[in-house]
Amino acid sequence: MKFGILVNEGPYQHQASDSAYLFCKAALAKGHTIHRVFFYHDGVNNSSRLTEPPQDDRNVVARWSKLAADHGVDLVVCVAAALRRGIKDENLAPGFRISGLGQLVESGIQADRMVVFGD
Amino acid sequence: MSEAVAKKFMFVNRTAPYGTVYALESLEVVLITAAFDQQVALVFVDDGVWQLKKGQQTKGIETKNFSPTYRALEDYDVEKLYVERESLEARGLAEGDLIVDVTVLPAAELGALMAQQDVVFTF
């Protein structure tokens, strides 16, 4: 099955990003496809490469970057939501790209299922 | 970008219009989805029903009053607006308190409607 994923909450404050990541890992392990992960609302903060969690904690941002590198998952950050929150190309972590909301709608059209992770 | 088959997109709005940005940013997705010529329906449940309340005044919180946008939705062919009856009643609201024409449905019927959608976004 081809999944579209929407992440609506930022890292650490909320479990949404963790759950979305674990869902993607599990889906890929079962042979499913992740069409795209779209980051919206505070979810755009998952893409900041300036994030530095304590060493004994998981690195939410780096984990997403690794998922993109290992599986070619398309990580898209909403431009309008990103600019509101100080996320730009210059502080974007590897594997993420900034684009418009049309990418979310297109993912809804292309994917068999859209799964929303939020509050 | 044109797609031969339009999908049914439903937007479930659960939060008050101010206090968090969900309602405002949800509207942005709604407008883009309509621009993609998809079938769009909006649902207002829980505190989301406040998004449609008449007479919103936001000067005191120095935030933009975006409620007029709901009245502009029909210009984008977004005409399916559903409000959950239980949510309205629990907040002492009636259909006449809302700034747009809506269809008021009980939760059970809304659930059946959700089951018919291709894509459900919750904000």
Please give a quick description of this structure.
The complex is a heterodimer of chains A (119) and B (123). With 119 residues, chain A is of the alpha/beta class.
For the structure shown, list the relevant keywords:
heterodimer; A: 119 residues; alpha/beta; Hypothetical Protein Ychn, Chain: A; five-stranded parallel sheet; 5 strands; 34% helix; B: 123 residues; 4 helices; globular
Number of distinct helices of chain B:
4
The average pLDDT value of chain B, as a whole number, equals 95
The appropriate CATH architecture of chain A is 3-Layer(aba) Sandwich
Strand-and-helix sequence of chain A, N→C?
EHEHEHEHE
Please give the domain count of chain B. Answer: 1
Walk across the major sheet of chain A and give the strand order. 4-3-2-1-5
Radius of gyration of chain A: 13 Å
CATH architectural group of chain B: 3-Layer(aba) Sandwich
Biggest interface found: A-B, 18 and 20 residues
CATH class of chain B: Alpha Beta
The name CATH uses for the topology of chain B is: Hypothetical Protein Ychn, Chain: A
Per DSSP E runs of 2 or more residues, the count of β-strands of chain B stands at 5
Count of helical regions of chain A:
4
SSE succession of chain B: EHEHEHEHE
What integer value in Å does the Rg of chain B equal?
14 Å
In the predicted model, the low-confidence regions of chain B spanning at least 5 consecutive residues are none
Low-confidence stretches of chain A: none
Strand order of the largest sheet of chain B: 4-3-2-1-5
